[in-house]
Specification:
Layout: H1 10-25, H2 32-39, H3 44-49, H4 53-77, H5 85-94, H6 103-116, H7 121-135, H8 141-160, H9 167-179
Amino acid sequence: MVKRRNDPDRRDRIIDAALSVIAEGGVAGTSHRRVAERADVPLGSMTYHFTGMDELLREAFTRFAERVSERFTARLSAVEQREQLASAIVELVHEDLVAGPDDLVLTLELYTLAARKPAFRQITHDWMRRSRAVLERHVDSRTAHKLDALIEGLFIHVSLDATPHGRDVTRDAVLRFLSA
């Protein structure tokens, strides 16, 4: 009888390795072989744990979106008064949404994949729904919807602009939005 190697964390390692490979080379540069190498698992583990690349990508991006949502929720759940909301959003944009070095790339890769493949849109819809639900603790649903979009735009600009604006500009934008 052949004894099987006990590796209960293998599936999780593969998902985390997939995120690392995606951040490094994009979805287009992600293959079963590269992920297996990064996770340090046999290539056959890929088909044992996932029916194909789409399932692996869905699992990886779902995990990523949930991690970012947890940071979003933690930051905004600490807000007790509406006056604190702008400060929390500034910290969210300048700290929490870029907490990991790969967060921007993974966010943009997910958005691109969701734009191309409707099956991946549910991940972004769920992510937005969670963000809006947290924002709705502080503002009405219509404002939460628009504020969520503002936060995303500010995050992208802070991350990609050749001369990114500071916290004061973010605070001003949020305060103007909230007072409109």
